[in-house]
Write a structure and sequence with these properties.
heterodimer; A: 238 residues; Rossmann fold; 6-stranded mixed β-sheet; 9 helices; 9 strands; B: 234 residues; mainly alpha; MetI-like fold; 77% helix; 0% strand
Chain lengths: 238, 234
């Protein structure tokens, strides 16, 4: 029986660097299912918020709490970075790496990795060095690596930035599947179309603050603030 | 020019005939320098990785000292090791002075900072790449060091080979602590120094060419075994 780690609660979280406040104070609760999209202009704090939730960012004030102890919650979370880190290993060994970290045998980990490689469409390149993959393939590798430990929550920081339409469609299909399988997803994106296709609810950040949050249809059809209206129209929001 | 040609011819003759003295000296050179390299790598490589991922007070000072120690004067190291191992020294009871072990100790002291410093620079760059991923994957410090050492193994091989290069060519320290005793502690570099002193430039040059060939051979073997410079490899 796996201990549920959600809901995730942020209570007046602030991130300040060199006297400049990058995020917050921000409070929110993420319940146990669905796909939340973080949107907002550049520098609005999307990445900082994702990293703060995941524990990668040093928080200056406030608290991030999980249903269980924070240390116990760590192995049940995964993060996909905007620029995926490619380890100096083969595709298969890169995907298998998180399982090796928790003591799984090499053969078992590689077998599970082969399954994920097939699922994300990398079975043809499993034995190739990870760094020679294309941008879309690297992002799919990062996704498989993030999912191989079956996380309860997956954070994605603009996973489709700089990818072509074909790669974006493949990654969105994978995200659809894992959401349907019960994985909680929190993802930042600049792509309004992608947010419309994927989101259950949207959180709009502006100048480091939670500016507007709403279910998808409300957010896109009846935005409450001028900034969101302008953003959705494609105007510059600074 | 004549001396150089004579040296080349003599080197070829000694090598082809597998001259017993040359083989003995060469094998001892390899034994001392390879052992020193293995020990120094076992110390220096993890230390370099640890230094790359750990943040602690005076870290920059430690790195600066480590870098400075790359230029340790071998003669001074030899002198210090001599004092430590001499009969009146604190480790005199071990009876190691004028043995290959004493030469290995001196070489380890000389090349460990070099290996650790090069390893640190390679590991620092790799850690910058891996930092967020390894933190995100909830790795322990030991797992991080293991990942850096494994994934950076080809850069670390370069560090170890640089250490070997310095060890095999070193003469000052091993002359002092080894004593250049025939059939006991004589190695290629000390033999070259001896033959030069005797005025036998031909033999000295021959030994020098063998030394260079040996260094190149060891590097080539290591590169072939570790499959560096292959397509799509690191």
């Amino acid at each position: 029986m796996v201990t549920p780690i959600l809901p995730l609660k942020l209570d007046a979280v602030e991130v300040t660097r060199r006297g400049k406040r990058l995020l917050g104070p921000i409070s929110l609760t993420l319940q146990g299912d669905g796909l939340t999209i973080l949107m907002g202009p550049n520098g609005s704090g999307k990445t900082t918020l994702l990293r703060s939730m995941h524990g990668l960012e040093r928080i200056s004030a406030g608290r991030v709490t999980w249903q269980c102890d924070a240390v116990a919650a760590r192995p049940h979370q995964s993060f996909v970075f905007q620029t995926p880190t490619m380890m100096r290993r083969s595709v298969l060994d890169s995907i298998a790496y998180p399982l090796r970290l928790i003591g799984r045998g090499k053969a078992e980990a590689r077998k599970a990795a082969a399954g994920w490689a097939e699922r994300v469409g990398l079975s043809a390149v499993m034995e190739r060095p990870a760094h020679v993959l294309s941008g879309g393939e690297k992002q799919k590798l990062a996704l498989a690596r993030a999912l191989i430990r079956d996380p309860q929550i997956l954070f994605l920081d603009e996973p489709c930035a700089n990818l072509d339409g074909h790669a974006i469609r493949e990654i969105e299909a994978i995200l659809h599947d894992i959401r349907a399988a019960g994985t909680r997803i929190v993802m930042s994106t600049h792509d309004i179309g992608q947010a419309r296709r994927l989101a259950d609810d949207v959180l709009f950040l502006y100048r480091g603050q939670k500016h507007e949050t709403a279910p998808r249809d409300n957010f896109f059809n009846a935005p409450e603030t001028d900034e969101v209206r302008a953003f959705l129209k494609g105007d510059l929001v600074v | 020019m004549n001396d150089i040609l004579q040296g080349l011819a003599e080197a070829a003759r000694l090598t082809v005939t597998l001259d017993a003295t040359l083989v003995d000296i060469t094998l001892r050179s390899l034994q001392v320098s390879l052992t020193a390299t293995v020990i120094a790598a076992a110390i220096g490589l993890p230390f370099g990785a640890l230094l790359a991922i750990n943040r602690f007070p005076r870290r920059r000072l430690v790195i600066a000292i480590l870098n400075a120690l790359m230029g340790l004067p071998p003669v001074v190291v030899g002198l210090l090791v001599y004092i430590m191992l001499s009969r009146a020294g604190p480790l005199g009871v071990l009876g190691l002075l004028f043995t290959p072990t004493a030469m290995i100790i001196a070489q380890v002291i000389i090349i460990t900072p070099l290996i650790a410093s090069i390893a640190h620079q390679a590991m620092r760059d790799l850690w910058a790449d891996y930092h967020d991923l390894l933190i995100s994957l909830h790795t322990t410090k030991r797992q991080r060091i293991r990942a850096l050492l494994w994934d950076g193994r080809r850069a670390l091989l370069t560090a170890a080979l640089a250490g070997f290069g310095r060890a095999i060519g070193e003469v000052g320290a091993i002359m002092i602590v080894g004593g250049n005793i025939d059939n006991v502690t004589r190695v290629l570099t000390t033999a070259i120094a001896l033959e030069t002193g005797k005025g036998d430039f031909g033999l000295a040059l021959a030994l020098g060419f063998v030394l260079i060939a040996l260094a190149i051979l060891v590097n080539l073997v290591m590169h072939v075994l570790s499959r560096t410079e292959r397509d799509s490899r690191w």
